[in-house]
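Sanity check

After download, print the first record. It should look like this:
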Amino acid sequence: MKNLIIILTFLLTPSISNASEVISVTNAEDNGEGSLRFAIEIAEDGDSITFTEFFEIFLLSPIDIYNKKISINGEIDPVTVKLFDGSQRDKGKIEYRAKTIDICGYNYKTMGNEQAFILSQGANVSFYNMRFKECEGERGSAILANESTSANIYNCTFYANNSAKSIVDCTNYKVNITNSIFINNETSSQSIVTYCNLYNCIFKNNKGYEGGAAYQCKIYGSTFEANTANNGGAAFNCEIRNSTLIANTANNGGAAYNCEIYDSILKANTAHKSGGAAYDCKIYNSELEANSAHMAGAAFKGYLEKCFIVKNKASLSDEATCEAEAVNSIYYGNTTIDSKNREQFN
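Expected structure tokens:
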């Protein structure tokens, strides 16, 4: 028996236009009238699903969304809180508290493959302000978007989920994830997110095998911190733009492996073997600072253009970049650690 927990945290929700009907979840049951599962079953294209109050909902099996274009979203629930000083005079302060919904479930292991949400056969689903927690499954343990489906994920948090392959799984770059946070998730054979578009997301303390956070993704304006993997501590085979990759760790490519990187910062990443920041990557107009590796403190193999390569350390190679071509780039303060643990500047 597995524990599946999803916590939906409702914050400010973007307006949904052209929704033909709003369906309310009114109880915490796994199924039946008023439940989340029932709301999804009766929803038609353009409908949106909201929650009327605080619930703890136990899911006994995955929810399959089949060929529907719907949204599951939260609302702000403003609560006026009047604060008083010692003499009970009203100080007039107003606080706004967000409504939250807990969805907790127990999934029986069937063929080793369970998910919280499965998108099938043309489904197009928008998720707003949800927190997925401790979902377990073989592939896409939080969200599995099959072929011919798409999803938009806004302001969501993915926390402590576990999977053999992925937490959010897509095959066609039709899942867009925006302003979302991934913390303490783990996969054993691939990465946390696959084949998705990532905008302004944060990945921290995640663990994967090929990419500690992302595999085959297109990444924009995101931050990756303290993620780990066998290859590519943060990302594997991704396109990365205007992002920060800091303190990630891998055997090869402390931050990135076989990626294209533009206008980004790669700082304080570590590779136990080669490429403190990057392994076999193409990097343009970026900063590689204070990364470290056994060989090539900054980058091993690949191509760098108009990069600032500074204060990287290696314990074997005498260069910050080894077997990598660097064009119009600046080197400063890179060092090699000799057999007596002394820094040699190069």
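If your output differs, re-run the checksum step. Summary of this record's structure: The longest strand covers residues 2-9.
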